[in-house]
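Lab meeting notes turned into a lecture example. A postdoc, R.K., suggested we walk through two folding results consecutively so the class can see how the record format repeats. The first protein's sequence and C-alpha cells come next.
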Amino acid sequence: MAIANNQIETNENKNKEKEVKQYIVVQIGSEKYGIDISYVDNIVRMQKITRVPKAQEYFKGIINLRGEIVPVMSIRLKMGLEDDTFTSASRIIILKIEDKGSLGVIVDEVCEVVNLSEDQIENNNINSNHVKDTFINGIGTSGDQLISLFEINAIVDEKDNT
C-alpha cells in the first residue's frame, strides 16, 4: 500500500509541475507584459522594416529573417497607445502561431523569463470596453512586480480593434 500511495503522490507532483508556465517579460511603455514562451520562436534586434502599402496602421511592414519574410506589427498601436520609439533596447519578438505562421511584434525591451504557476496568475474577468484590456488574459505576480499576460491570439487577430 505504501508503494501505491507513493505513486499517487509522484503523479500529483508531476501534475503540479505541469501547471508552471514560462513567460518572457517585455516592457512596453512603463508597463511589463508577459508573452507565453511557447509562442516565441526568436527574439531579434531592431532592423529595417519595409513598409507595406495599404496595410493597417499597426502593421509596420515586413522583415527578411534569414530568407523568411515575416510581417511585423506594433503592439503599441494595436492597443491604442502612442507610436513606437526605437532604442537600442527595442526588439522584435518572432511569434509562431498555429495556422497563421510567423509574426513579429515590436517591444521596447525584453526584460527576463519568469516561471509562473497557476496560483501566481489571476485570470482577467473584467468585461471592459478598453481595447488594451481585450489583449490581456490574466495578471501574473513575480516577486513584487505585476505582469499583464498577453492573449496572443487576440493580438494577432487581424480584426482592427482601435
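The second example is placed directly after the first for contrast:
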Amino acid sequence: EIGKGRRSDSRLVIILVSDGHSQDDWALVQSTAKKVHDSGAEIYAVTLSKDYSREELELYTGDPAHLYVDDRIKLFVEAAAASVGECPVKGQTTAEPAVTTPPAPQPETTTAAPVPPTTLP
C-alpha cells in the first residue's frame, strides 16, 4: 500500500526517522524491511541517537550510504534536497532542478511619521 495511488512517473522515497532500536521481534523487523524493499522505494534512515543498531537501520535502507547517523546527519538535508531535485516536474522540459528555495528575508523598512514644521515666534 505504500505506493498506492502514486503517479506512474513518480519516485517513491521513504525516510525512516528512528531511535535506532525497534521494540519489535527481530523476525518482524526483517519482514517489515522486506516489505519496504519490495515497494521499490528509495529508503533513507536517520537517527540522532548515539545508541542505535546499525544492522537494523541498514536492513531497512539496504544501502549504508542511505544511513545518516553520527557526523553524517549534517549531510542528510543536502542529500535529500539533491534527491528531490532529481524528481521530474510535470511539464518541465529542462534539466534544471525542481527544488526551489524560499526567498531571502528582506530587511524590514520603517517609515518615519512626518514631522510637522515648526514656526519660530
